[in-house]
Amino acid sequence: MVEHTVKAFDDEIGALRGLIAEMGGLAEVAIARSVDALVRRDTELAKEIVKADARIDALEVEVDRLAVKIIALRAPMADDLRDVISALKISGIIERIGDYAKNIAKRVGDVEGRAKIEPLLLIPAMADIAQSMVRDVLNAFASRNSALAVEVVDRDAKVDEFYNSIFRNLVAHMMENPATISSAAQLLFVARNLERVGDHATNVAELVYYAATGDYYQDRDMPRNG
Question: Is residue 226, in this structure, part of any structural domain at all?
């Protein structure tokens, strides 16, 4: 990172990155804890996760305020402007990831007879991949690592494969065991939320790629004129 003449500018950019890191860390942990609560049917842990989401929401507000302040007072350009705008957008995406973890936690008490529902065994593995995507994309943002951002985008296909497999298994399970339809439907909702976490981590990765390179991710393989 280039040092600026005004040290306060560097401090504000650093603070902005710190807020994003804190938000992302909380969202990553929330994903892991929500799935753990689901597997163990720990309703008390689930309540803690739902309550803790307020901190992620509060951090998003802090990011918004600081980003507006930087733009208004520092008039950033080029790399700095891309960093600020990307951080502003990323905070909103991370807030949504936190909401998905909260949504999973809210379903913990609604899954009955979980030992009889085999697809539940696939959900922790799916969550591990989604969680690793969130962790790695935050590392990519902190280090301006466009190559790692691309790798995160590519990994989303694995999350989609898990979702498709869980969907097929749950539909078959519901047909064979009508009494478990309600619980299976809740698990399908959980899998869908994890699939959306992967999609949102991909969105963050594309913003990181733009911030680091100045190019849009979708245009990375297109030949340049001249």
Answer: no
pLDDT band at 57 (very low <50, low <70, confident <90, very high): very high
Query: Would you say residue 78 lies in a domain?
Result: yes
Percent share of the chain, pLDDT over 70: 90
74 vs 192, which has greater pLDDT? 192
- pTM for this entry: 0.89
**133-163 pLDDT per residue, tens:** 999 999 999 988 999 999 999 999 999 999 9
Spatial separation of the C-alpha atoms in residues 140 and 146, rounded to whole Å: 7
| Count of structural domains within the chain | 1
Distance linking the first and last C-alpha atoms of the chain: 29
Burial (Cβ within 10 Å: 0-12, 13-18, ≥19) of residue 55: middle
CATH number (domain holding residue 184): 1.20.58.220
- Residue 170 is assigned to a structural domain of this protein: yes
Q: Are 165 and 122 in contact (CB under 8 A)?
A: yes
Identify the CA nearest to 108 among candidates 46, 64, 32: 46
Residues in the chain: 226
pLDDT bracket for residue 6 (50, 70, 90): low
127 CB contacts (<8 Å, ≥6 apart)? Answer: 31, 32, 35, 194
Those residues with Cβ within 8 angstroms of residue 137's Cβ, 6 or more apart along the chain or in another chain: 24, 148, 149, 152, 201, 204, 205, 208
